[in-house]
């Protein structure tokens, strides 16, 4: 087991309200793990407990085998990045980055060398002597990253580090954080409420809701095999259908269960295969089923088109296709093709 | 310029004029040898200023007021500053309750306090000046709090404090190294407000201390009854001090706050 | 409860205690027949209250103060309210300049004004009471402005006004139907503050009007020198008025604002 | 010409700064036209000029043939929706909706009938007697819509109506607005800075920047044929390449010009066609060119995957594919296929 951090039986409550309930999980060394959940799900509370900034906790937090549950934050060797950047406005960029090394009373030469290295890495060398208020949001967060990474913490916690940034910068910085993490081999915990962000950069995702872990796994795991309804809804624009409805479309499934079908796994049948697919329809075990219906609306999402497809047997399906040149018109009567293995059951009710 | 704008500018100018004209008159009067029936005084002099500056009562009164003002500032800095930091950064619940204290100087002006003060503290074997300073400091708490409250809301000081902790600092060092340097203009404004409250206090000093301790304001009232020109000189001095403080406040207040935006 | 919390609560309690204890003493004194060396008075009476209420000087003084307060409110409502609405909703540039007026009552207290007032307006053939009211209103402008400013920032009043225009209303109707009903508590707070400023004024009334117009505060000072018990009754009445106003303010202030969040 | 609204020679300036420069455009009756641009581009300024809320304008604004340039806002028969909702907090939902009808002194029975109809349409009947502060953001904006639509304005202006809402509600309400617009045949102008939003619901898009119109056209027009670099960058994650670079990839193009290639128009060549495509490569006029290279990174965007593809000849390309089960691994050496007609030249420099 190569978990760097293990959290056991974590319980956190303020004023009789239990915010975190019996949480257990591990974070693997050298990986980027995301805590993903809606606001109020408890992800930041858990992060602050790991940092040592929350004193009212029960349970055990172990870092590299040592129990750090009752250590003060300045003795944990953990770094943290705040959504507000939390730069020290009275210090220059270089002095901000040097701050932690100065607290450790490192030799001057070493401080200069390590700070310069970090400034190069985060591409902030040109702004070395600037003050935080002169920087853009993205630059501020890069300085905050440099300031934490220069101390080479065993674990770096990032608390919604990109939430205050514009969409474009958010994507750029997200990719940079992932690159730092991989190049320097830092173990990171990344808190976010944005599922696209979490999926784009994580090795491992921990979905939280209501103070509990809902699912832990890779982006692909979670996206392709959501455990329950909450995750299916939170993760994306899934088609969520019950067994009865699916049977009416020609799928052989358990009527008691619920299923998800990702909208991008449908394809429009615009070929001579129509008749072939039609034939397959009633042979229950066929690889591909073909569902007749009419295109109700199409909406351009830039690189994709999202269709609402009204099936002849009733339910509406969401279908997504790349915005290439071939796609059916609104009101066209077509079939959509669905591979049997694209129908994924939810594990929990 | 629209009609609405003209009206608004006119009314604002009127308000300012109503208050500034008397001050201008006082200023002229303080330089006048004699000014009764003419529009401007017949001749000018610096005599009244000279008389005042060399008057030992004036000096004593000024020094007495400075002592009260300075002492109030020291008490406020030592007692209020740490409490306000703690409340603002860590204790939302307590912060919500502080607003009850905010109305106190409004609901409890000196004249309401003073009868009871005499009754309670009048006979204790502790110098009354100490009570005076404590009471003045207590009355200036809301102004002190408010000047810092805006500053604390302008940046994520909690994040900065916690970040300093994550970077290895112990709590007191984190406060000294990271918080203090970034609230210094706010602290200065708070000090200035407390100082002026102390310097300008009249009712409590006059009645509670029974006139034994003559401050600037008490001297001013005394002179008002005695000598018109000398009084106008004193008024000009006092106004000069206040306007200086006001200008400093206007320049500084919101400086930490603006920088934080 | 952490140590920091205990300390903070302790200090805040001390501040409140320092101010409330004297008031409690005054309250007791006002019911006492005689209270010199004992911890509590020997016997209780309502005599002092009875004496005061039936005293014609007290009634005249109270009515005089009510007149000044009410007049200041009327002037402020007619002149300030439209200007403040216009500035807040349509004129960012003018709004930025209003902050210069905000420091005026701080830089220009009554005692600084009064010498010049006598000089300038003393000999004009207009009743001095009118100047008194205008000056008091001018001095209360900042408080009036501030209470409405917070309210105007709490909602998109500009949007509401413009929306009413788009729905067919003419400007004045839009103000009356859409703006006024939604700032009414703010307006009430502003009125209350102006009223109390007028009701409590002392220095200008006393010196500029030469004591010819005895207000509540002037009567209070006069009594302070004459009769201890009667004075404490007056103090209790005054404190009662102020605390009532303060409670109303505390309940109301921020009501429009909170509702807007 | 069926333009309901025409704007001619519109110039708007405050304090010597020219905010809107010589603008000319028309808005078609019964359509939804979007003003799209970054903040500060002038789109709201133009909208407010049309509403009559901006007095300092030069030029002519005509509505249904009448010059309305100097009419006050209450006489224009134009409705407006604000980002802040601008509901009247002292009135109930029903009274808010009835407001404009009461100003017009309509008979009581008519008011009740029309208000009820609008509340049904916007699905706010259940909240009829609620006050605005008791509603969610999405409900507030629906009331605001009802309040404006009940007056049957000739033109309805929407000033970033969705910006204050959460992502999920934003999409729902966007689709509702489009439905109202189509069902009631209202002419709408919709101001937004969000290109996805504009593309999803508009018949016609007017892209503004720096006080000028950059391009006017349908979503497809603009997305597929951006006129200039600003639009290409603003509209999406285009590959923007100059002629020289494209030639090095095997395209026959004008070396002096710039081109865009939408990332979703590439396909990975995972078939036996590799050799065939390779052959085609040097026959310059082939329908499809095949570009060899290596997959540098893949990032999961939920329904899509975004790849960075390093071509053998140098430039990096962005490639987007649906998240189906077949796609190359990171570090795989593959070819991408590009249809010749997917290479679109920019009209302006």
Structural summary, described in words:
The complex is a heterotetramer, with two copies of chain A (349 residues) and two copies of chain B (261 residues). With 349 residues, chain A is α+β, with helices and mostly antiparallel strands. Chain A folds into two domains: 231 residues, Rossmann fold; 109 residues, OB fold (Dihydrolipoamide Acetyltransferase, E2P), CATH 2.40.50. In chain A, the strands form four sheets. Chain A has a six-stranded mixed β-sheet, with helices on both faces. In chain A, strands 13-17-14-15-16 form a five-stranded antiparallel β-sheet. Chain A has a four-stranded antiparallel β-sheet with strand order 2-1-4-5. In chain A, a hairpin with a 2-residue loop joins strand 1 and strand 2. In chain A, helix 2 packs across helix 3 and helix 2 runs parallel beside helix 4. Chain B folds into two domains: 45 residues, no CATH class; 206 residues, MetI-like (MetI-like fold, Orthogonal Bundle), CATH 1.10.3720.10. Chain B contains 14 helices and no strands. The model of chain B has no long low-confidence stretch (mean pLDDT 85). Classes of the chains: A alpha+beta (349), B mainly alpha (261). Chains A and D meet through helix 6, helix 7 and strand 16 of A and helix 6, helix 7 and strand 16 of D.
Beta content of chain B comes to: under 5%
Tell me the CATH superfamily of the largest domain in chain B.
MetI-like
Looking at the overall shape, the CATH architecture of the largest domain in chain B is Orthogonal Bundle
Average pLDDT for all residues of chain A? 89
Please give the oligomerization state of what you see. heterotetramer
Give the proportion of residues in helices of chain A: 25-40%
Residue runs with pLDDT of under 50 for 5 or more positions of chain A:
272-284
CATH topology of the largest domain in chain B: MetI-like fold
N-to-C SSE string of chain B, H for helix and E for strand: HHHHHHHHHHHHHH
How many beta-strand elements of chain A? 18
Give the helix proportion of chain B (percent range): over 70%
CATH class of the largest domain in chain B: Mainly Alpha
Helical element count of chain A?
10
What is the CATH H-level superfamily of the largest domain in chain A? P-loop containing nucleotide triphosphate hydrolases
């Amino acid at each position: 087991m190569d978990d760097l951090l293990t959290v056991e039986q974590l319980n956190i409550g303020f004023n009789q309200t239990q915010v975190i309930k019996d949480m257990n999980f591990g974070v693997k060394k050298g990986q980027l793990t995301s805590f993903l959940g809606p606001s109020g799900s408890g992800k930041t509370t858990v992060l602050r407990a790991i940092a040592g900034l929350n004193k009212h906790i029960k349970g055990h937090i172990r870092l590299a085998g040592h129990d750090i549950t009752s250590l003060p934050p300045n003795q944990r060797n953990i770094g943290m990045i705040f959504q507000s950047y939390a730069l020290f406005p009275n210090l220059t960029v270089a002095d901000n980055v040097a701050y932690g090394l100065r607290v450790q009373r490192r030799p001057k030469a070493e401080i200069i060398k390590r700070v310069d290295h970090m400034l190069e890495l985060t591409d902030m060398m040109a702004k070395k002597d600037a003050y935080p208020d002169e920087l853009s949001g993205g630059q501020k967060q890069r300085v905050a990253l440099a300031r934490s990474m220069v101390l080479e913490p065993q674990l770096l916690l990032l608390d919604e580090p990109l939430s205050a940034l514009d969409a474009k910068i958010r994507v750029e910085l997200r990719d940079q954080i992932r690159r730092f993490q991989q190049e320097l081999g830092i173990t990171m915990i990344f808190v976010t409420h944005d599922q696209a962000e979490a999926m784009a950069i994580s090795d491992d995702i921990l979905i939280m809701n209501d103070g509990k872990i809902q699912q832990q796994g890779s982006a692909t795991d979670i996206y392709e095999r959501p455990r329950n309804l909450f995750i299916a809804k939170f993760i994306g624009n899934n088609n969520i259908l019950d067994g009865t409805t699916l049977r009416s479309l020609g799928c052989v499934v358990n009527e008691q269960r619920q299923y998800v079908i990702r909208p991008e796994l449908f394809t429009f049948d615009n070929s001579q295969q129509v008749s072939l697919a039609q034939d397959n329809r009633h042979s229950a075990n066929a690889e591909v089923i073909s569902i007749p219906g009419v295109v109700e609306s199409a909406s351009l999402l830039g690189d994709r088109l999202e269709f609402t497809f009204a099936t002849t047997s009733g339910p509406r399906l969401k279908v997504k296709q790349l915005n290439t040149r071939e796609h059916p018109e609104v009101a066209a009567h077509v079939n959509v093709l669905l591979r049997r293995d694209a129908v994924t059951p939810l594990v929990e009710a | 310029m629209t009609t609405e704008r003209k009206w608004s500018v006119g009314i604002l100018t009127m308000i300012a004029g109503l208050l500034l004209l008397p001050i201008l008159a006082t200023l002229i009067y303080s330089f006048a040898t004699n000014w009764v029936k003419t529009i401007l005084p017949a001749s000018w002099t610096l005599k009244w200023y000279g008389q005042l500056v060399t008057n030992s009562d004036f000096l004593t009164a000024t020094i007495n007021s400075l002592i009260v003002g300075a002492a109030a500032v020291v008490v406020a800095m030592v007692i209020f500053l740490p409490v306000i930091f703690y409340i603002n950064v860590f204790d939302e619940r307590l912060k919500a309750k502080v607003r009850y204290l905010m109305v106190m100087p409004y609901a409890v002006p000196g004249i309401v306090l003073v009868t009871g003060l005499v009754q309670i503290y009048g006979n204790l074997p502790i110098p009354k000046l100490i009570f005076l300073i404590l009471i003045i400091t207590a009355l200036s708490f809301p102004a002190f709090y408010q000047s810092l409250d805006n500053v604390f809301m302008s940046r994520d000081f909690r994040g900065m404090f916690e970040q300093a902790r994550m970077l290895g600092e112990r709590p007191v060092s984190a406060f000294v190294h990271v918080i203090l340097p970034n609230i210094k203009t706010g602290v200065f404004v708070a000090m200035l407000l407390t100082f002026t409250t102390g310097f300008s206090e009249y009712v409590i000093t006059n009645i509670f201390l029974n006139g034994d301790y003559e401050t600037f304001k008490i001297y001013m009232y005394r002179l008002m009854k005695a000598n018109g020109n000398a009084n106008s000189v004193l008024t000009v001095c006092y106004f000069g001090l206040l306007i200086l403080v006001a200008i400093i406040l206007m320049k500084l207040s919101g400086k930490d706050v603006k920088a934080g935006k």
